[in-house]
């Protein structure tokens, strides 16, 4: 694992974007295939990718994106669904066409149907030739995607219950905690690890403990982020605050 520590969140975004572009050159076999995280952490990185596209260093106009996760039970036109969030915060920013955006389907008549759709999502990633570079954030509790602590390190895309901490963290996007879905469909930790390169960005002291556990702690389902230790090409980009608990 390569750990880069820089002074500010802005520098972290720039370094993480370079790591993504290098990864696309190293693992891409045609048009880029990106694994996409939502959340605050990668917003600066997406802005840097947009700037790189404007400079002509990369072209996302025929790229495909695979979201890490989606809520269960939110219509995909709901403004807080991750499909709509990624259209706003990624597609419209970096120029990735909506037709190239894939998001797990969190809607279905039955749990079994959602589970089938989740398995089909892993197949769709394979059919696209795999993800070249997976962009990641990390939860304050160490979650990766919506793989909460105690998730299997080899898990595949599936339905998960959201931890209460995660629902509370995300309540700011909804009209109250009771509006936050209780379940999600998330790429599994095994799915995530199949990407060519992983680029995780974390900034701020509220991520320091999770980063210390993920980078220097034991490989453990208690900290899903620790699976990065297993990956042959994982890049972790931190500002000083997020790195403050590293030894
Ligand atoms: C988002 C995701 C989550 C976030 C994590 C950090 O698709 O899968 O794992 O990366 O919750 O969120 P932020 O960046 O908002 O602190």
Number of separate structural domains: 1
Q: Can you name the CATH architecture?
A: 3-Layer(aba) Sandwich
The chain-level structural class is alpha/beta
Number of beta strands: 10
As for the CATH topology, it is Rossmann fold
The span between the termini is 15 Å
**Helical content, roughly?**
25-40%
String of helices and strands: EHEHEEHEHEEHEHEHE
Give a structural overview.
The protein is of the alpha/beta class. The chain has a single domain, classed as Rossmann fold (3-Layer(aba) Sandwich). The chain contains seven helices and ten strands. It has a seven-stranded parallel β-sheet with strand order 1-10-9-6-2-3-5, covered by helices on one side. It has a three-stranded antiparallel β-sheet with strand order 4-8-7, with helices on one face. Helix 1 crosses helix 2 (43-54) and helix 2 packs parallel to helix 3. The two termini are 15 Å apart. The model has no long low-confidence stretch (mean pLDDT 97). The structure holds fructose -6-phosphate (F6R). Residues 37-41, 68-69, 137-139, 143-146 line the site of fructose -6-phosphate. It comes from Paeniglutamicibacter kerguelensis. GO terms for molecular function: glucosamine-6-phosphate deaminase activity. Its EC number is 3.5.99.6. It is an enzyme of class 3 (hydrolase). This is Glucosamine-6-phosphate deaminase.
């Amino acid at each position: 694992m390569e750990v880069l520590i820089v002074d500010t969140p802005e520098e972290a975004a720039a370094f993480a974007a370079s790591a993504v572009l290098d990864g696309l050159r190293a693992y891409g076999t045609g048009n880029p295939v990106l694994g996409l995280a939502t959340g605050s952490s990668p917003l600066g990185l997406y802005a840097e990718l947009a700037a790189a596209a404007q400079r002509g260093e990369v072209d996302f106009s025929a790229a495909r994106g695979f979201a890490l996760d989606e809520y269960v039970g939110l219509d995909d036109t709901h403004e807080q669904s991750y499909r709509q969030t990624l259209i706003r915060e990624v597609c419209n920013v970096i120029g990735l066409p909506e037709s190239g955006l894939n998001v797990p389907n969190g809607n279905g008549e039955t749990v079994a149907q959602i589970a089938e759709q989740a398995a089909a999502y892993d197949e769709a990633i394979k059919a696209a030739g795999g993800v070249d570079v997976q962009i990641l954030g990390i939860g304050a509790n160490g979650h990766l995607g919506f793989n909460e602590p105690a998730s299997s390190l080899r898990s595949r895309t599936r339905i998960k219950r959201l931890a209460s901490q995660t629902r509370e963290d995300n309540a700011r996007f909804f009209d109250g905690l009771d509006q936050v879905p209780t379940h999600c469909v998330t790429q599994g930790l095994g799915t995530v690890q199949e990407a060519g390169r992983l680029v995780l960005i974390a900034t701020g002291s509220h991520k320091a403990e999770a980063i210390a556990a993920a980078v220097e702690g034991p490989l453990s389902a208690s900290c899903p982020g620790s699976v990065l230790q297993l990956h042959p090409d994982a890049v972790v980009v931190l500002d000083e605050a997020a790195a403050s608990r590293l030894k």
